[in-house]
């Protein structure tokens, strides 16, 4: 834009009378109202419903929902699963991004496609593959049965399915970011005698910090909220293998709407928190 | 040609080895189990599972509703992206941030919330019921759920492309006497088209596989409102692992095809930008 008119000149031109005709303001209002109407029906109304239904019998009933043993167990299980899955996928994401962004090697774009694959796979298929691997009729089914280890319809299966679904989240945030930042500073650090780990923690990590936070919170949101994949491998044992989203389903099917929407409201708050952190990270990046 | 170009940076073997191992253990081995399980069925069994009338009805719903939802998203997603990029109105920033809500919101939550809103006594459902329009527990409900899920894909794909449209070209066209529709058709649409196609495909791919938000609102009647992922779950519950694997294999093949077309569409978009000199 060098040499072009300055921002002030452009703003002045834009503010001149006659620029906004009647037709263009009609078009503007029609489009804005269409957008808002569409979002109101599809997004804002459902979000409001969650909280209004959860609180429809008053605060006391709302809080009562969280005193239930099975609900507490579901919350604990969800937190446990996220506490295992998110760090694992973060380590994977950093390792994969380092290998892919810092080096040139054959088959790189194929590797990136494979990493992205779980995003495209249906959640139900993500659960199904683990049932075929570890279920009673699966590849390792007999071997596991003889040793009395249960993976499917137990917590390890839930962890594995969640890991599959959230697998690419950190890596696909970091790969383009690290590719864009280049290798110059790392190469300088190594030339000056820094070790690999020192270079990573003192040179690379500060640069990719916000991208990493972004990937981790998205990974966490998906890990805590996953329904389809977990539903296939969980077996729905109340209080034992139900995560929060699965517990919402159970309560809903029991027509216990206040409790179902109360747990759902907690998940909605998690989503809101995720978006707030995401917006903050975007501000920081600018 | 060597496997990799030389570099002074350390850790190539370690990081590539670890990530490849993890990828194989978590993603590729389980997917291989699905392919192998399907391969152990005879060809006749495979065809019989896939052409079962109930399965065929589920493809029709899954693909039909996903196509419709992705089309609705392309129209409304474009309008939303346009208003967010071009117009200033109160609450614009907040709405821009909320577009990502369907990404972040667990699907079970959107499922029960949409059902509550569109049920016959719900906020919106009660105004549609007098016209004989039933949304919840019909195929329309499936389309509504899939539209919500796919919306951010279209808006987020199209937004940067709309920002790329050169306003001076629009102004030049206007001074040369072009009407609004001509400007839209000849200047805006060609620039945005690759992004819109990418968004459409992303939304469609997500919708075909979607499970959580749909099963609450669909009613799940066999032959009528049963999506393919649900049929896989039903087959698993009946311990028909081979049947579930066959349907899963088809969905996996679809995912591969989708991923490929998304990559091609994005390459098209990049070529467009290069051709435009940017």
From TrEMBL, chain A:
<feature type="transmembrane region" description="Helical">
    <location>
        <begin position="149"/>
        <end position="168"/>
    </location>
</feature>
<dbReference type="Pfam" id="PF00528">
    <property type="entry name" value="BPD_transp_1"/>
</dbReference>
<feature type="transmembrane region" description="Helical">
    <location>
        <begin position="29"/>
        <end position="56"/>
    </location>
</feature>
<comment type="function">
    <text>Part of the ABC transporter complex CysAWTP (TC 3.A.1.6.1) involved in sulfate/thiosulfate import. Probably responsible for the translocation of the substrate across the membrane.</text>
</comment>
<dbReference type="InterPro" id="IPR005667">
    <property type="entry name" value="Sulph_transpt2"/>
</dbReference>
<feature type="transmembrane region" description="Helical">
    <location>
        <begin position="77"/>
        <end position="100"/>
    </location>
</feature>
<keyword id="KW-0813">Transport</keyword>
<feature type="transmembrane region" description="Helical">
    <location>
        <begin position="120"/>
        <end position="142"/>
    </location>
</feature>
<keyword id="KW-0812">Transmembrane</keyword>
<keyword id="KW-1133">Transmembrane helix</keyword>
<dbReference type="InterPro" id="IPR000515">
    <property type="entry name" value="MetI-like"/>
</dbReference>
<keyword id="KW-0764">Sulfate transport</keyword>
<dbReference type="InterPro" id="IPR011866">
    <property type="entry name" value="CysW_permease"/>
</dbReference>
<feature type="transmembrane region" description="Helical">
    <location>
        <begin position="257"/>
        <end position="277"/>
    </location>
</feature>
<keyword id="KW-0472">Membrane</keyword>
<protein>
    <submittedName>
        <fullName>Sulfate ABC transporter permease subunit CysW</fullName>
    </submittedName>
</protein>
<comment type="subunit">
    <text>The complex is composed of two ATP-binding proteins (CysA), two transmembrane proteins (CysT and CysW) and a solute-binding protein (CysP).</text>
</comment>
<feature type="domain" description="ABC transmembrane type-1">
    <location>
        <begin position="75"/>
        <end position="276"/>
    </location>
</feature>
<dbReference type="InterPro" id="IPR035906">
    <property type="entry name" value="MetI-like_sf"/>
</dbReference>
From TrEMBL, chain B:
<comment type="function">
    <text>Part of the ABC transporter complex (TC 3.A.1.6.1) involved in sulfate/thiosulfate import.</text>
</comment>
<comment type="similarity">
    <text>Belongs to the binding-protein-dependent transport system permease family. CysTW subfamily.</text>
</comment>
<feature type="transmembrane region" description="Helical">
    <location>
        <begin position="131"/>
        <end position="155"/>
    </location>
</feature>
<feature type="domain" description="ABC transmembrane type-1">
    <location>
        <begin position="59"/>
        <end position="260"/>
    </location>
</feature>
<dbReference type="InterPro" id="IPR035906">
    <property type="entry name" value="MetI-like_sf"/>
</dbReference>
<dbReference type="InterPro" id="IPR005667">
    <property type="entry name" value="Sulph_transpt2"/>
</dbReference>
<feature type="transmembrane region" description="Helical">
    <location>
        <begin position="195"/>
        <end position="221"/>
    </location>
</feature>
<protein>
    <recommendedName>
        <fullName>Sulfate transport system permease protein CysT</fullName>
    </recommendedName>
</protein>
<keyword id="KW-0764">Sulfate transport</keyword>
<dbReference type="InterPro" id="IPR011865">
    <property type="entry name" value="CysT_permease"/>
</dbReference>
<comment type="subunit">
    <text>The complex is composed of two ATP-binding proteins (CysA), two transmembrane proteins (CysT and CysW) and a solute-binding protein (CysP).</text>
</comment>
<feature type="transmembrane region" description="Helical">
    <location>
        <begin position="241"/>
        <end position="265"/>
    </location>
</feature>
<feature type="transmembrane region" description="Helical">
    <location>
        <begin position="97"/>
        <end position="119"/>
    </location>
</feature>
<comment type="function">
    <text>Part of the ABC transporter complex CysAWTP (TC 3.A.1.6.1) involved in sulfate/thiosulfate import. Probably responsible for the translocation of the substrate across the membrane.</text>
</comment>
<keyword id="KW-0812">Transmembrane</keyword>
<feature type="transmembrane region" description="Helical">
    <location>
        <begin position="63"/>
        <end position="85"/>
    </location>
</feature>
<feature type="transmembrane region" description="Helical">
    <location>
        <begin position="12"/>
        <end position="36"/>
    </location>
</feature>
<dbReference type="Pfam" id="PF00528">
    <property type="entry name" value="BPD_transp_1"/>
</dbReference>
<keyword id="KW-1133">Transmembrane helix</keyword>
<keyword id="KW-0472">Membrane</keyword>
<keyword id="KW-0813">Transport</keyword>
<dbReference type="InterPro" id="IPR000515">
    <property type="entry name" value="MetI-like"/>
</dbReference>
């Amino acid at each position: 834009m060098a040499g072009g008119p300055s921002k002030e000149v452009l703003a002045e031109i834009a503010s001149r009378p006659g620029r906004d005709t009647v037709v263009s303001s009609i078009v503007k209002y029609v489009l804005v109202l269409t957008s808002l109407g569409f979002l109101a029906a599809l997004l804002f109304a459902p979000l409001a419903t969650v909280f209004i239904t959860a609180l429809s019998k008053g605060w006391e009933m709302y809080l009562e929902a969280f005193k239930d043993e099975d609900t507490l167990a579901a919350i604990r299980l969800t937190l446990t699963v996220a506490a295992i899955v998110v760090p694992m996928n973060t380590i994977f994401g950093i390792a994969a991004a380092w290998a892919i962004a810092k080096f040139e090697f054959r088959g790189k774009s194929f590797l990136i496609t494979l990493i992205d694959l779980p995003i495209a796979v249906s959640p139900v298929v993500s659960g199904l593959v683990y049932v075929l691997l570890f279920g009673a009729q699966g590849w390792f089914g007999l071997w596991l049965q003889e040793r009395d280890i249960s993976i499917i319809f137990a917590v390890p299966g839930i962890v594995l399915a969640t890991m599959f679904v959230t697998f690419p989240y950190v890596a696909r945030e970091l790969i383009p970011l690290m590719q864009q930042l280049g290798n110059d500073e790392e190469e300088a650090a190594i030339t000056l005698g820094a070790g690999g780990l020192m270079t990573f923690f003192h040179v690379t990590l500060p640069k990719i910090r916000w991208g990493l936070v972004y990937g981790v919170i998205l990974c966490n949101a998906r890990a805590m909220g996953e329904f389809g994949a977990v539903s296939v491998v969980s077996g729905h044992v109340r209080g034992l293998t139900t995560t929060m989203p699965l517990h919402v389903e159970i309560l809903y099917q029991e027509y216990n709407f206040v409790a179902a929407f109360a747990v759902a409201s907690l998940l909605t708050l998690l989503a809101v928190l995720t978006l707030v952190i995401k917006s903050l990270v975007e501000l920081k990046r600018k | 040609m060597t496997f990799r170009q030389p570099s002074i940076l350390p850790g190539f073997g370690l990081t590539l080895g670890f990530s490849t191992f993890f990828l194989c253990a978590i993603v590729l081995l389980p997917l291989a189990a699905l392919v192998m399980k399907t391969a152990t069925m005879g060809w006749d069994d495979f065809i019989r599972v896939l052409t079962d009338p109930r399965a065929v009805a589920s493809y029709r719903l899954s693909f039909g509703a996903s196509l419709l939802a992705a089309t609705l998203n392309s129209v409304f997603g474009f309008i939303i992206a346009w208003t967010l990029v071009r117009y200033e109105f109160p609450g614009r920033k907040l709405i821009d941030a909320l577009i990502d809500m369907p990404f972040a919101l667990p699907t079970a939550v959107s499922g029960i919330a949409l059902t509550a809103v569109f049920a016959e006594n719900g906020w919106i459902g009660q105004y549609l019921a007098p016209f004989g329009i039933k949304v919840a527990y019909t195929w329309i409900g499936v389309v509504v759920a899939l539209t919500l899920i796919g919306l951010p894909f279209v808006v987020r794909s199209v937004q940067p492309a709309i920002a790329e449209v050169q306003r001076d070209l629009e102004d030049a066209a206007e001074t040369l006497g072009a009407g609004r529709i001509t400007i839209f058709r000849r200047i805006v649409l060609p620039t945005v088209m690759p992004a819109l196609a990418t968004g459409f495909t992303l939304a469609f791919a997500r919708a075909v596989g979607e499970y959580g938000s749909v099963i609450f609102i669909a009613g799940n009647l066999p032959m009528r409102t049963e999506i393919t992922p649900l049929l896989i779950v039903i087959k698993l519950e009946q311990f028909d692992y081979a049947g579930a694997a066959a349907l899963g294999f088809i969905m996996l093949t679809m995912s591969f095809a989708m991923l490929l077309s998304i990559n091609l569409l994005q390459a098209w978009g990049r070529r467009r930008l290069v051709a435009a000199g940017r």
